[in-house]
Amino acid sequence: MKISADFTVIPDDFAKAAAPEYRTGGVPVISFPFYIDDVSPEARYLHWEFTDPDSIPVCGFEWIHWSVANLPIEALMFDFNDSHALAIPPDFSRQMPAMIPETVQGRNSSASKFVGRENDPAVIMRYNGPQPPDQDHAYYLHVWATKKPLPGLNQGFWLNEMHHALRGLDEIPDQTGIFLTGKV
Q: Which parts form a coiled-coil structure per UniProt (predicted)?
């Protein structure tokens, strides 16, 4: 499996310099587009996390920006004329609940009791765009593809719950990741 995007630096619309109309509570909430190619033909579900390992020196932990579980591959639009088989469109995080209600999104780090600045589900259980405070950060998008959905995950799951569910499967998930840069 491969992940790619049409950029290596996360564009302003999806990050710190997002326009006011692309924010909720001051937080960028429009998720960026990306592609998933060469998925195992046996896979039926996609799951991912988007995190900031460079946040550890800043806040003491790896910031979770977005997590998604149990996205049926067949629910995604296929364009057989496109070189990319599966495309995650821009603003998918906000559109997904209406489009594909069986797919769940987890809490991001804005939900942390250590951050405690927000309780709006539109901010804490959706994409939360990069806003590096100190320097450019390298963000990691990790995608898994599985034959079965991950059991026991509901809207607002914690990322560790998804990791436990992945480890508990009776299969080895297809997986890959990509680093993207977020600018100060």
A: none
